[in-house]
């Protein structure tokens, strides 16, 4: 069976004869898991966002190389760790917050502009005489550490009372002609992850934190229309390198705890 029959291509989308046959995007239907086994930090692990697509690529007539894969950018981030009435630590993306950019690359920091370079991309070198069929997939989740104590203090006293996180992403399925730099957008997905954890620091380690708010995340939205990729979603820095950890006390000036890389 040829590629085009085998993928039963009633194509979802067809661009320049590149066909996207199956596309799935979901967030695992399970709650965020809180880990309280360290006296220094609370850790939490969110469910995974997963995206996968089956592609049918027509023969490449010329001596060209195409890469097909996933590109992701962070479009909004609130990430506060509150320490009672003392203040809060906050991971921030200053350029995004100040509205200087619309999105920041969420690449692995090596494979720009791609999210990663294992299952996330496939490279096809022409000329080829037959169509190619392949799958590209990606997954993403948060697994951070938050100090029980105020991050700028010498003390190890647990004072953390709340963790609030709300982050939005846009993820594109893209075919990129490496020879001409022509980009063919095949699909746009939007998703969001929210975490809300209440902490009672007076309780013993292992029983301080609990999830509040909704247990399950909203499922991703696969857009019916393509959304263009903002230029700086394709280049350095990525979100991990661009983020800054601030301490914002109730009284007194804010402090940079960890600068951007």
Automatic annotation (TrEMBL):
<dbReference type="InterPro" id="IPR029638">
    <property type="entry name" value="FAM78"/>
</dbReference>
<protein>
    <recommendedName>
        <fullName>Protein FAM78B</fullName>
    </recommendedName>
</protein>
């Amino acid at each position: 069976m040829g590629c085009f029959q085998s993928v039963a291509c009633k194509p979802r989308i067809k661009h320049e004869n590149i066909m996207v046959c199956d596309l799935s995007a979901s967030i695992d239907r399970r709650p965020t898991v809180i880990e309280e086994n360290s006296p220094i930090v609370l850790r939490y692990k969110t469910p995974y966002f997963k995206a996968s697509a089956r592609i049918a690529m027509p023969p490449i007539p010329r001596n060209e190389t195409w890469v097909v894969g996933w590109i992701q950018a962070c479009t909004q981030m609130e990430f506060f760790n509150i320490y009672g009435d003392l203040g809060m630590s906050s991971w921030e993306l200053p350029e995004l917050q100040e509205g200087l950019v619309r999105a920041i690359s969420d690449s692995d920091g090596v494979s720009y502009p791609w999210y990663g370079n294992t299952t996330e991309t496939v490279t096809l070198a022409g000329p080829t005489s037959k169509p190619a069929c392949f799958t590209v997939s990606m997954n993403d989740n948060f697994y951070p550490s938050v100090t029980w104590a105020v991050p700028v203090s010498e003390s190890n006293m647990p004072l953390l009372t709340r963790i609030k996180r709300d982050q939005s992403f846009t993820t594109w399925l893209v075919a990129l002609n490496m020879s001409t730099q022509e980009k063919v957008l095949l699909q746009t997905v939007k998703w969001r992850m929210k975490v809300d954890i209440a902490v009672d620091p007076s309780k013993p380690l292992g029983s301080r934190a609990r999830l509040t708010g909704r247990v399950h995340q909203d499922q991703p939205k696969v857009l019916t229309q393509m959304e263009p990729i903002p230029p700086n979603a394709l280049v350095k820095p990525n979100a991990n390198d661009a983020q800054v950890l601030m301490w914002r006390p109730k009284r007194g000036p804010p402090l940079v705890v960890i600068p951007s890389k």
